[in-house]
Design goal:
The structure holds two protein chains of two kinds. By secondary structure, chain A is of the alpha/beta class. Chain A contains 18 helices and 24 strands. In chain A, β16 (319-324) and β17 (327-328) form a beta hairpin. By secondary structure, chain B is an all-alpha fold. Classes of the chains: A alpha/beta, B mainly alpha.
Chain lengths: 517, 354
């Protein structure tokens, strides 16, 4: 242990880090060391605080309390430029590239090589970009527009951008989520090379086997606290899972199980081509019965959201068939599908789920105005009464239904979106990451509501990348990876490690007999 | 504007009072300009002047009603001024020349039919705007800029740039009633004012009490979210542009009727006054927000300002400067109101303990 510690000197450490957002404590007294010449892996569920911690290190966010130390002295990163000046580079999970600019321009954005501070030295930038691409074993021309590259190649450009800054500490936030197996191998070779050069790599991923393969040190976060931190020697998947979700799994009020009823929803051979080749959704077939909660687990980019969008008629190019109560669902537009009893609660509440400038009442009734309309006259009194009923039933905390929805907390906004879906009297409720961006208390309430709705006979199909959530809330678990369903488990007998393994089929090289470009 | 002060909001001292004042700002501005000119301009308050004023305002207000819906959806309609000109020319052409069927027979229309055809032309231009925007994904600014030129060009082509004069109509074709559209009166009030009142009431009803109205606001508030909620976004957009074209056609008919002549340049820059009235009335250019009542008041503020300054003998150059300043001030105050409103709502929510 000490020998390993000596081999990997600490390049940056965080002591007593606290980060408070309105309503939540994202980081709670966190100590974290980044060791140079090593791969420091960071693992935890969504919302555990990994990204917040990385943003603090990269200077995107500032700590509420606690300090960052480099070589024993406290440092303050007021912005990403400060962090970059101290040798910290980051590759964000969401790509930060300009699709309308070339690869070379993207790599040197904001730090252009110039002559006399004005004229950009395009030749030099191109040459350096070319060298970086060669180092990353990719044959991408520096003049290609980033928008024309596949997502995996864009990720490579993003990594090149960080490499170009000669970072001593390089943070990679889920870099493999969009990469094919072959590209992952290349990335791992690059990481090994960086490590030999003494760079401290911070590596965040949900793919546990990947972590075990390349990591030297591991830190596990749960609900903003460190639950485990040690050298990777001797670490296995059960240890990680145990630290990730804790010994006693949080209980989300599983109701007294009645046997699920007849099938309400079935999808057959749903396929959606991906832009730039391949399939985002690949021959997905599944069914949901009345009163059943089916959880779809998978990593980012597994095609779960795209599948739900296909059900909601968002992708005209998708093929496959849907059945509701045994009858084919043929309506081509959203209104038609809502009328048949499909309701979707999108993942991105702000830009897809709500209309922020409208009131709670208007948001909730927008999908079911027909119920309050005679000919063309809208019965405002009936609408308000119905909204009041739902506000009470879903215990939405709101001063008045006329308040703008933007004034509500995330959890209450989510309840409004659920109310909107329920007002259309759905038979099947599709929920995309229903607990994203809401605090623990509201989460439990949302889950209780889901339970109650299922008990009342609604079929629920929900998508999550939270292992704990899918294990404790579902009657049946489906796992998706690379657009396919790669596992189906009964909730009672499902094994966490098996679920996790199924979610990386086609990704982790060890499990990839074939690659999906 | 005063009517939208929410009675259920508990009074929270200064902020709440300030918010009521800000919400009613256009109305307060209206009263202010009214009082100002009553004192400063002799004869401003005379009955004759009021009638003239209302007639001037009516035309801009009618255009602004259509424009308000378009802006609420997050769009813009630059073509209304040209539609005014084009529809006037259509009416003039039909009265003077009829439609030559090319078989030695010319089809003539009576007043009612001419009105219908002119309105149809206006709606059609609006439909072209809507199709360009919804089907071909042209930005509203560009699509309507294009139709602005096309419609104006067609109006000029129809007469080779000349005026269709002396449109008094003939008994033979049943068009003697044409001048009455703009000049006639009902219960002592001229028709354009009645038309404005009817249209404003209908539009306000549509906005507040019909699903279509709600959808118009929803599309402007968040188009993608509205679409996912089952709102037929394209249909809503088609409607607002067609309705805007309809309003413009009405104005074209009124002007042609009042002048008893159709000139192809009629209506130039009218679109800007309509946009100004809507914005002054609290319609947000980013969409999702606006009221018909506000727009009407906005149109009156602009109208009173223009007529009052003329009566005071202020040069028309200065009038233009003042109009611009008033519009900018209106938007600045609007921003302040939005901020205050958000704060008050957040505080109410905080009082609930989240």
């Amino acid at each position: 242990m000490t020998a390993a510690a000596d081999a990997h000197p600490v390049g940056l450490s965080i002591r007593g880090a606290v980060k408070v957002y309105p309503g939540t404590r994202a980081l709670d007294d966190v100590d974290f060391d980044v060791r140079l010449g090593a791969v420091n892996v960071l693992v935890g569920e969504n919302g555990a605080g990994k990204s917040t911690l990385m943003k603090v290190i990269a200077g995107v966010e500032q700590l509420t309390a606690g300090e960052i130390l480099m070589e024993g002295a406290p440092v303050r990163f007021a912005g990403t430029r400060d962090a970059a000046a101290h040798g910290v580079g980051i590759v964000f999970q969401e790509l930060n590239l300009f699709p309308n600019l070339s690869v070379a321009e993207n790599i040197f954005i904001g730090r252009e090589h110039t002559r006399a501070g004005v004229d950009i030295d395009a030749r030099r930038q191109r040459a350096e970009a070319q060298a970086l691409m060669r180092r990353l074993e990719h044959d991408i021309s520096p003049d290609t527009l980033v928008g024309e590259l596949r997502i995996g190649e864009q990720q490579i450009v993003e990594i090149a951008k960080a490499l170009a800054q000669d970072a001593r500490i390089l943070i990679l936030d889920e870099p493999t989520s969009a990469l094919s197996a072959a590209e992952v191998e290349i990335l791992f070779r690059v990481i090994a090379d960086l490590r030999r050069r003494g760079v401290g790599v911070v590596y965040i991923s949900h793919r546990l086997e990947e972590l075990i393969r390349i990591g030297d040190w591991i830190t596990v976060l749960r609900d903003g606290r460190i639950t485990g931190s040690r050298s990777m020697a001797g670490v296995d998947v059960p240890w990680i899972v145990h630290n990730m979700i804790g010994a006693a799994s949080r209980d989300y009020a599983r109701a007294a199980d009645g046997a699920p009823g007849a099938e309400v929803f079935r999808a057959e051979g749903v396929t959606l081509p991906r832009r730039g080749g391949g399939r985002a959704v690949d021959e997905v077939s599944l069914s949901v019965r009345a009163g059943e909660i089916v959880g779809v687990y998978g990593l980012m980019g597994a095609g779960r959201t795209e599948f739900l969008e296909c059900v909601m008629a968002q992708h005209p190019h998708a093929t496959g068939r849907f059945f509701l109560d045994g009858a084919p669902l043929v309506a081509r537009d959203v209104a038609g599908r809502i009328a048949r009893g499909v309701a979707l609660i999108p993942e991105d509440r702000k830009s897809l789920g709500t209309i922020q400038i409208m009131s709670v009442r208007e948001n909730m009734s927008i999908a079911s105005l027909g119920d309050f309309t005679r000919l063309f006259h809208l019965d405002l009194a009936a609408e308000a009464a119905r909204v009041r009923d739902f506000v009470r039933e879903l215990t939405i905390k709101v001063a008045s239904p006329e308040s703008p929805i933007s004034a509500l907390s995330g959890g209450n906004q989510q309840k409004v979106v659920i109310g909107k879906a329920l007002m259309t009297r759905p038979k099947i409720l599709l929920m995309d990451e229903p607990s994203r961006g809401i605090d623990v208390g509201a989460k439990a309430e949302v889950f209780r509501t889901m339970r109650r709705l299922a008990a009342e006979g609604l079929g629920i199909l929900f998508v999550t990348s939270d292992l704990d959530e899918v294990m404790s809330l579902s009657d049946r678990i489906l796992v998706m990876s690379n657009g396919r369903i790669t596992g189906e488990f009964d909730a009672a007998s499902a094994d966490e490690a098996a679920v996790v393994a199924a979610s990386s089929v086609g990704h982790a090289p060890a499990h990839a007999p074939e690659s999906h470009p | 504007m005063t009517t939208d002060a929410n009675p259920s909001v508990p009074s929270q001292g200064v902020d709440a009072a300030l918010l009521v004042l800000l919400r009613a700002r256009t109305f307060i501005a209206l009263i202010a300009v009214f009082v100002f000119f009553s004192l400063m301009a002799p004869n401003f308050l005379s009955g004759a002047n009021m009638v003239i004023l209302a007639k001037h305002v009516a035309l801009n207000a009618i255009l602004a009603i259509g424009m308000t819906f378009v802006i609420i959806t997050g769009g813009i309609d630059l073509s209304v001024g040209s539609i005014v000109g084009l529809c006037g020319m259509v009416a003039g052409w039909l009265m003077l020349n009829g439609v030559d069927l090319g078989i030695g027979y010319t089809l003539w229309f009576n007043t009612f039919e001419i009105i219908l055809i002119a309105l149809l032309v206006g709606v059609l231009v609006g439909a072209v705007n809507g199709l360009l925007i919804t089907r071909l994904n042209v930005a509203p600014f560009i699509a309507t800029l294009g139709t602005l030129y096309v419609a104006r060009g067609l109006a000029l082509l129809s007469s080779g740039g000349g005026t269709f004069a002396n449109l008094r109509g003939s008994a033979e074709f049943g068009t003697t009633g044409f001048p009455a559209i703009g000049a006639g009166t009902f219960l002592g009030i001229t028709n354009p004012i009645w038309i404005m009142i009817v249209l404003a009431l209908a539009a306000a009803y549509l906005a507040a009490r019909t699903p279509l109205g709600r959808y118009i606001y929803a599309v402007g508030g968040n188009e993608r979210s509205a679409a996912l909620s089952g709102v037929k976004v394209n249909r809503v957009k088609m409607f607002v542009y067609m309705f805007s074209g309809f309003c413009a056609a009405i104005v074209g008919l009124i002007i042609t009727s009042q002048l008893v002549a159709a000139h192809p340049a009629t209506g130039e820059t009218f679109e800007l006054n309509a946009i100004a009235a809507a914005v002054l009335g609290g319609t947000s250019m980013s969409g999702g927000r606006g009221r018909i009542a506000g727009t009407i008041i906005g149109a009156f503020v602009i109208g009173i300002l223009a007529d009052g300054l003329v009566m005071m003998g202020v040069s028309s150059f200065w009038q233009t400067v003042i109009k611009g300043l008033v519009i900018i001030a209106a938007v600045v105050v609007d921003q302040a109101q939005q901020r205050l409103q958000a704060n008050v709502a957040l505080r109410q929510q905080a009082a609930l303990g989240r």
